[in-house]
UniProtKB/TrEMBL annotation:
Protein name from the UniProt record: Amino acid permease
GO biological processes: amino acid transport; transmembrane transport
Keyword annotations of the record: Amino-acid transport, Membrane, Transmembrane, Transmembrane helix, Transport
PANTHER family: GABA PERMEASE (PTHR43495), GAMMA-AMINOBUTYRIC ACID PERMEASE (PTHR43495:SF5)
Subcellular location: Cell membrane
Lineage: Bacteria, Bacillati, Bacillota, Bacilli, Bacillales
Domain Amino acid permease/ SLC12A: 16-425
Membrane-spanning residues: 46-68, 100-119, 125-147, 154-177, 197-219, 240-260, 331-354, 360-378, 398-417, 423-442
A Pfam entry, by short name: AA_permease
Species of origin: Lysinibacillus irui
Membrane topology: Multi-pass membrane protein
GO cellular component: plasma membrane
Length: 450
């Protein structure tokens, strides 16, 4: 292969990576995970999402600063390795890869379930296979086509959420026809604002962290972004404002309009329930289509992120070189195809697990997002000492206080989640982490003996 064929091209702009981060974060976690989070915390789920948004802000600011200081970085593994060393970077790379491949596997099945709403005569595995082929094709075409597709998918989701917010506020505040303004009594009735106490709030944090996970995909786009030192900080700022807005306001409307204890156990999404209250004809079909697009968008971002991790591993000689091959369109073809194997495994799993696949994997994925954020925050904390001589146009205000707050908060959430999460999910996640660690140790010994 020629040398220039192994370099990714910088074709993505600020609008692309901003929408891409939104596509990764505003997905099934919002539309499908909302019921679980509300069931755990009741109206106090609003505090959970606010806390999660603040933590995310502090972590992403650190990521943006490190990206500006290290202009040669291709992914956030390069940012972390230059500060913390090889093992944390290796661990980060592989848990991030694991997060996305498990996520796209689970979401291929979930997407099929939503399609089956219209096509009940088709089995889930055929529909999951169809979605998987579509997402694979989008990623194989070119980075620009992928970015444009993700941009428009994310834009559709955001438009519908905005309509949802406006309509919900009208239902809450305005009386018209036979409708009486609902007001805010549901926030304190039915057991109060904290119906399940502090433990309910802590348990919901796992869903919250999982839901916000995906925003850090900005750190994977560094090698394919024009002027990353300018674009990344701008994208981080705009993305965070939008994510907190698009989570907090919809949840505020849901728990205000609908008693929190009426949300879970209902086959409909809370979003469908609210749209039906508005009286929009075919609300169930509209929201089914939106949720489907949200999941495909998240899968799209996930396949991109996981394939770029595998690509950079191949370029650095950590995995077989074939995964570092780029097509004429500058797309890592074999890395993408390898990651799509997860989707097709999801198709096989759908024959046995069906819709339970997503719910089971969400816990493990939540743990992974927690560790990713922790590693990024710790790296940022130490990066100023390592790169003290490198001044940049973008620096985090109130450093190191914001970073320390993020680290302490994430550590506290981790401890709380360990005590509130199924021992099976915790055990499986720990097993995966031990396997990654063992592979690092064995690989180091192998290289020493060469």
């Amino acid at each position: 292969m020629e040398k220039n064929s192994q370099q990714l091209t910088r074709t993505m702009t600020s609008r692309h990576i901003t929408m891409m981060a939104l596509g990764g974060a505003i997905g099934a976690g919002l539309f499908k995970g909302s019921s679980a989070a509300i069931d755990m915390a009741g109206p106090s789920v609003l505090i959970a999402y606010l806390l999660g948004g603040i933590i995310l802000l502090f972590v992403m600011q650190g990521l943006a600063e490190m990206a500006v200081r290290n202009k040669e970085a291709r992914t956030f593994r390069d940012l972390v390795q230059s500060v913390l060393g090889k093992y944390p970077a290796y661990f980060l790379d592989w848990i991030y890869w694991k997060m996305w491949v498990l996520n796209i596997a689970a979401e291929s099945v979930v997407a099929a379930i939503f399609i089956q709403y219209w096509l009940p005569e088709y089995p889930i595995w055929i529909l999951a296979l169809s979605v998987s082929v579509l997402v694979t094709a989008i990623n194989l075409l070119s980075v620009k086509i992928f970015a444009e597709t993700e941009y428009w998918l994310a834009l559709i989701k955001i438009t519908v959420i905005i309509v949802f917010i406006i309509a919900g506020l009208i239902l809450l505040l305005v009386s018209f026809g036979h409708h009486t303004a609902v007001g805010f009594s549901n926030l304190t009735e039915h057991g109060g604002f904290f119906p399940n106490g502090s433990m309910g709030l802590i348990a919901a944090m796992l869903v919250v962290i999982y839901s916000y996970g995906g925003t850090e995909i900005i750190g994977i786009t560094l090698a394919e972004t024009k002027n990353p030192e300018k674009v990344v900080p701008k994208a981080v700022r705009s993305t965070l404002v939008r994510i907190v807005t698009f989570y907090l306001l919809p949840f505020f409307i849901i728990v205000s309009l609908i008693p929190w204890n009426n949300v879970n156990g209902v086959p409909e999404s809370p979003f469908v329930m609210v749209f039906k209250m508005i009286g929009i004809p075919g609300a169930d079909h509209i929201m089914n289509a939106v949720v489907l697009l949200a999941i495909i968008s998240s899968m799209n971002s996930g396949l991109y992120g996981s394939s770029r991790v595998l690509y950079t591993q191949a370029v650095d000689g950590r995995v077989p070189k074939i995964f570092g091959y780029l097509s004429k369109r500058k797309v890592p073809v074999y890395a993408i195809l390898m990651c799509t194997v997860a989707m097709y495994l999801g198709v096989i799993l759908s024959l046995y697990a069906g819709s339970k696949t997503f719910d089971f994997l969400m816990g493990s994925l939540g743990y992974t997002v927690l560790f990713i954020w922790l590693i990024i925050a710790i790296a940022h904390l130490k990066s100023r000492k390592k790169q003290a001589e490198n001044t940049s146009a973008y620096e985090v205000k109130w450093f190191p206080y914001t970073t320390w707050i993020a680290i302490i908060a994430l550590s506290a959430i981790l401890i709380g989640i360990i005590f509130t999460t199924s021992i099976i999910i915790t055990g499986i996640t720990l097993g995966i982490y031990l396997f990654i660690t063992l592979s690092y140790v064995l690989k180091g010994r192998y290289q020493e003996n060469e």
